[in-house]
Design goal:
Number of strands of chain A: 10
CATH superfamily of the largest domain in chain C: Response regulator
Low-confidence stretches of chain A: none
Strand content of chain A: 25-35%
Largest sheet of chain A: 6 strands, mixed
Keywords (chain A): Amino-acid transport, ATP-binding, Nucleotide-binding, Transport
Structural class of chain C: alpha/beta
Number of strands of chain C: 15
CATH topology of chain A: Rossmann fold
Helix content of chain A: 25-40%
Family (chain A): Belongs to the ABC transporter superfamily.
GO molecular function (chain A): ATP binding; ATP hydrolysis activity; branched-chain amino acid transmembrane transporter activity
Strand order of the largest sheet of chain A: 6-7-8-3-9-10
CATH class of chain A: Alpha Beta
Chains: A alpha/beta (about 230), B mainly alpha (about 290), C alpha/beta (about 375)
Oligomer: heterotrimer
CATH superfamily of chain A: P-loop containing nucleotide triphosphate hydrolases
Protein name (chain A): Leucine/isoleucine/valine transporter ATP-binding subunit
Shape of chain A: globular
Largest interface: B-C, 36 and 43 residues
Distance between the termini of chain C: 71 Å
Number of domains of chain A: 1
Mean pLDDT of chain A: 93
Pfam families (chain A): ABC_tran (PF00005)
Bound molecules: adenosine-5'-triphosphate, magnesium ion
Strand order of the largest sheet of chain C: 2-1-3-4-5
Mean pLDDT of chain C: 90
Order of helices and strands of chain C: HEHEHEHEHEHEHEHEHEHEHHHEEEEE
Number of helices of chain C: 13
CATH topology of the largest domain in chain C: Rossmann fold
CATH architecture of chain A: 3-Layer(aba) Sandwich
Order of helices and strands of chain A: EEEHEEHEHHHHEHEHEEHH
Chain lengths: ~230, ~290, ~375
């Protein structure tokens, strides 16, 4: 469904990604693992069209998207829940969901998607008139996911969704990811909590200083000694 | 206490203040959305006045249609300005953009001096010399028109920012540009329309206020100066801040001029800047882009 | 073949450009024209410069001076500020080595500039009215305009005798000139029992005067005396005074009536008096020649400030001719002081301190035209 071939990304002279190739098939949950500064966020931003790769190609459903602006990529159903949520602090919950929907290309009507999201995250219904800046961290993460879901994604990328969440919230999040997947959305998740990511995912990639170093099924990665020592602290 | 005089000066101040609001709303929008301080903003005020003048003299149309035409034309110029001077520099350091806008301001002023001549011109509105007496307060029809048109246009602008999808896109871009892009907002489109709106509002202010005094190519530097005082007072990027800041400046100036001196009236603007920067650098309305 | 044609036509062009003058290799006489070309005084500066250019064209067309030398105007922008005026005068003397300087349109500029040119170069100050320009002048300094004291003593009499307001309020610019105006007229009009109701100073860059005029109107004066050198500010004040609902008499400051002001201020200026060195309806032949030349070259209406520029060029040209030199300031200064000069504004004569004695006409706007009252 999504394919990266030989992607290079530079920030000025600094190389952030080098020859990154990966693929995510329809219906999969795939995780991208890597330590701080490995280039995970950079990879996701590149897929969303925020950064132009210096070399390589990105194909979504067979068509090149690496020259498209972000809003055109979103229209195709490739949507991201960004690291740090990137909400609009002075806008209300409903305004976020409204705005999230404005690029949606879907047979499902707005109200149906809204109902779906509000039943997935009932707290958002309660807080619909509240400004995003006044929400708790967990609520903000739900809003960020809700906003992305309003765009009717067929492929959802989540960048460190569990960051800063209380343990109960993390469980809720994991459930939400499973629910979204069950509804037919293909998922690429970047997580610091590698155990969580691998428990959700079918497959995983490991990124180290801008290069993919391991690619394997989630089960095998969980038992891989390099993963255990580097990311699971075992 | 002479209440008639006080009432008259307050009326003068509110009308001037409304003009300041028109000027500074565009300045604050551009800052809020693009994080750019546009030194050339006053030039669109000047162009609004001159285009109205030339629309009347060259096309032979009446004042009001000319105002409309000039406002639309200056607004449309915003597309070009963003395309040529701001969009290409969006990833550069703020200082580079600042210099670019300063360069644009000089370019337009000198261009206007060459094209329109140094000589002041009188923008002839049929409403300028007709006096309207409201109780004991004397206002020209033109000043009433300035006030009414400003209220109407600003109310429409505020409503659009608050309640339309485009308004949401604009606020989203102001509050978190990357978040907005990832929500599907076409940032370039938002920048363009923001410039159209800002330039159009400045142009309208020039077209409306032009007949109250004389117009000349350097009048833009006066306009941008007033705009800066207002946005610093109200908070850079805050639209309600521009409203309250503009009216406050208008009224404070009228009282300072009316009860102390014009020298004090001029100084009070600068005094406000210094006081605000010392005690409340975020302006009266603090947080940006609401 | 082609090359020869090119060469020939090039030479023909060069000859054409040089013109028929025999003395084509004589160096020009360089006169610095230091005028405001930007800022609030830019338009007045343009009128002044145009006046000088029209007169220089007349002199050059008549064969120049000193046996065929042309007058070349070297133009500088003083931006209406003393700092820029000083720097322009320095550049004129040190870099461009001009022979004589014409400048000092604003008193503030003249007062500073004269210190740089002190005893070094012939300096003709033009429209500035501050007495100190000549009272504290130097041996090479001459000033054309009447001082504010000269103007105001004449104008004071006229106001008392012809306009006869019971009371008056002033709106004046907040600088040396404006403060002096207030002092002078407070004394002069007070002496003929006109009650002085008040004064508002405005700033050099003000564009809106409604607040000050509202205040003056509330004092209920018979007349408002408007002291404005800057045409744009003046026009705005006359209009806004009427717009603020003031229905009394408006009196324009001396020397500040011009066609552009009438065009801009419209009906607000009808019937307003002023006094001026320049009566456009005079039948002086030099004035007619200049007015015709001006009309041929420029689209503006000739204005007082332009006649002063022209007068400066006229007397400098004549005095240099008489002295037989363009760059010996002692000889030119002596020549300037030696006689009465016929000029486009009538005969003028310089006092020992360099102050010109000129004719003053009472004028008035009637039917949108400036007419002199005999
Ligand atoms: N805008 C930028 N300009 C320059 N360098 C950047 C920029 N953004 C990221 N980098 C650098 O690129 C490298 C990759 O950063 P990136 O944010 O993609 O890593 P990450 O894997 O997401 O890390 P984290 O786990 O901290 O989120 C890092 O060295 C980072 O410092
Ligand atoms: Mg990251």
């Amino acid at each position: 469904m999504l394919e990266l071939v030989g992607i290079d990304v530079r920030y000025g002279h600094k190389r952030a990604l080098e020859g990154v190739s990966m693929r995510v098939n329809q219906g999969e949950i795939v995780t991208l693992i890597g330590s701080n500064g490995a280039g995970k966020t950079t990879a996701l931003k590149t897929m969303s069209g925020l950064i132009r790769p210096a070399a390589g190609e990105i194909r979504f459903e067979g068509e090149r998207i690496d020259r498209l602006p972000p809003h055109r990529i979103i229209e195709r159903g490739l949507v991201q829940v960004p690291e740090g949520r990137l909400l609009f602090p002075d806008m209300t919950v409903m305004e976020h969901l409204d705005l999230g929907a404005h690029r949606a290309r879907s047979d499902q009507p707005f109200s149906a998607r809204l109902d779906g999201i509000l039943s997935l995250f009932p707290i958002l219904a309660e807080r619909r008139a509240q400004k995003a800046g006044t929400l708790s961290g967990g609520q903000q993460q739900m809003l960020a996911i809700g906003r992305a879901l309003m765009a009717a994604p067929r492929f959802l990328m989540l960048d460190e969704p569990s960051l800063g969440l209380a343990p109960v919230m993390v469980d809720l999040l994991a459930d939400a990811i499973r629910t979204m997947h069950a509804s037919g959305i293909t998922i690429l998740v970047v997580e610091q909590r590698v155990d969580l990511a691998l428990s959700l995912a079918d497959r995983g990639y490991v990124l180290e200083t801008g290069r993919i170093v391991i690619e394997d099924s989630a089960d095998r990665l969980l038992s891989d000694s390099r993963i255990k020592s580097a990311y699971l602290g075992i | 206490m002479d209440w008639t005089l006080l009432g008259q000066q307050l009326a003068n101040g509110v009308v001037n203040g409304m003009n300041y609001v028109l000027i500074s709303t565009g300045l604050t929008l551009v800052f809020g959305v693009l994080r750019v301080i546009n030194f050339a903003h006053g030039e669109f005020y000047m162009l609004g006045a001159f285009l109205t003048y030339f629309a009347m003299s060259a096309l032979g149309i009446g004042y009001l249609p000319a105002v409309l035409l000039a406002t639309v034309a200056v607004g449309a110029l915003g597309i070009l300005v963003n395309r040529l001077f701001f969009w290409p520099l969006r990833k550069e350091h703020e200082f580079t953009v600042l210099l670019s806008s300063l360069g644009l301001a000089l370019l337009v002023t000198h261009g206007a001096e060459l094209g329109f001549g140094h000589d002041p011109k009188y923008l002839n509105s049929p409403f300028t010399d007709d006096i309207l007496e409201v109780g004991t307060i004397v206002l020209t029809q033109q000043r009433v028109l300035i006030f009414a048109a400003a209220v109407l246009v600003l109310a429409a602008t505020y409503a659009a920012i608050r309640w339309t999808t485009f308004g949401r896109m604009m606020r989203a871009t102001a509050q978190n540009p990357e978040g907005a892009a990832l929500t599907g907002v076409d940032i370039r489109f938002v920048h363009t329309i923001t410039f159209v709106l800002a330039c159009g509002l400045a142009g309208l202010a020039g077209a409306l206020v032009g007949p109250v005094a004389m117009i000349f190519p350097t009048v833009g530097s006066w306009a941008v100066l007033k705009g800066f005082i207002v946005v610093i007072l109200g908070g850079l990027g805050s639209v309600p801040g521009a409203l309250v800041g503009g009216l406050t400046l208008g009224v404070v100036e009228a009282l300072a001029g009316g009860y102390v001196s014009l020298g004090f009236m001029e100084a009070i603007g600068y005094a406000i800047i210094i006081l605000v920067l010392l005690w409340r650098p975020q302006g009266l309305f603090g947080s940006v882009a609401r | 073949m082609f090359r020869t044609t090119l060469l020939a036509s090039g030479m023909a062009l060069a000859l054409l450009a040089a013109g028929p003058a025999v003395a084509q290799d004589k160096p020009p006489v360089k006169i610095a024209a230091i005028v405001p070309q930007s800022g609030a005084g830019a338009f007045d500066g343009q009128l002044a410069l145009e006046g000088m250019q029209a007169e220089a064209a007349l002199v050059n067309a008549a064969g120049g001076i000193l046996g065929g030398r042309k007058i070349e105007l070297v133009v500088y922008d003083d931006k209406g500020t003393p700092e820029e005026g000083v720097s322009a005068a320095r550049r004129a003397m040190e870099q461009d080595k001009v022979d004589m300087i014409v400048g000092g349109w604003f008193s503030a500029v003249a007062l500073s500039m004269k210190e740089v040119t002190r005893d070094k170069i012939i300096s003709v100050m033009t429209s500035s009215q501050h007495p100190d320009v000549t009272a504290k002048g130097h041996k090479f300094l001459f000033r054309l305009n009447a001082t504010s004291n000269m103007m105001s003593s004449k104008y004071g009499q006229e106001i008392c005798a012809r306009i006869k307001p019971k009371s008056v309020a002033f709106i004046t610019i907040n600088d040396d000139f404006g403060r002096l105006e207030v002092d002078n007229y407070t004394k002069l009009l007070g002496a003929c029992n006109v009650e002085i109701k008040g004064n508002e100073f405005y700033n050099r860059n003000d564009t809106d005067f409604t607040v000050a005029l509202t205040k003056l109107k509330s004092l209920n004066p018979d007349a408002i005396y408007v002291s404005a050198i800057n045409t744009s500010q003046g026009a705005t004040i006359y209009r806004q005074a009427r717009q603020a609902g003031f229905r009394g008499t408006l009196i324009a400051s001396a020397g500040n009536m011009n066609p552009k002001l009438i065009e801009l201020a419209g009906p607000a200026l009808e019937g307003v008096y002023s006094i001026s060195l320049y009566a456009p309806d005079s039948d002086n032949a030099k004035l007619k020649a200049w007015t015709e030349q001006y009309g041929k070259t420029f689209k503006n209406q000739p204005a007082f400030i332009g006649t002063l520029g022209a007068q400066a060029v006229q007397v400098l040209a004549a005095a240099a001719d008489k002295a037989g030199t363009a760059n010996d300031p002692d000889k030119i200064a002596a020549a300037l002081r030696s006689q009465t000069w016929p000029t486009l504004l009538g005969e003028i004569k310089f006092e020992e301190n360099g102050q010109a004695l000129q004719n003053l006409y009472l004028i008035r706007v009637e039917g949108g035209k400036i007419v002199s009252i005999k």
